[in-house]
Amino acid sequence: MCKRCGQKFTDQRWEETTLNSEAWKAGDLSVCGPCRAEDIARQKAAAAAREQAAMQSSPKDRTSSDSLAEE
């Protein structure tokens, strides 16, 4: 049973969480497949947001902060 939504694990998710060779890729072993998929989507969205924020910071901002750090 999923600790988050209470849904019963599918056979596929059960195998993912119990097979020793696959368990390290299964993520949180206490959640079902759909909840795990939501976790992955959240992680990908957060990574994309961080990447976009890093790309949007201008080189001028970095240069001025670097010069302040040297003083």
Characterise this structure:
This protein is an all-alpha fold and 71 residues long. It contains four helices and no strands. It has helices at 11-18, 20-23, 33-56, 59-70. The chain is elongated, with a radius of gyration of 20 Å.
Bin the strand percentage: under 5%
Task: State the separation between the terminal residues, measured CA to CA.
Answer: 57 Å
Class from secondary-structure proportions: mainly alpha
Number of E-type strands? 0
Q: Radius of gyration over alpha carbons?
A: 20 Å
Which regions contain 5 or more consecutive residues with pLDDT less than 50? Answer: none
Question: What key attributes describe this structure?
Answer:
mainly alpha, 4 helices, 71 residues, elongated
In brief:
With 71 residues, the chain is an all-alpha fold. The protein is 68% helix and 0% strand. The mean pLDDT is 77.
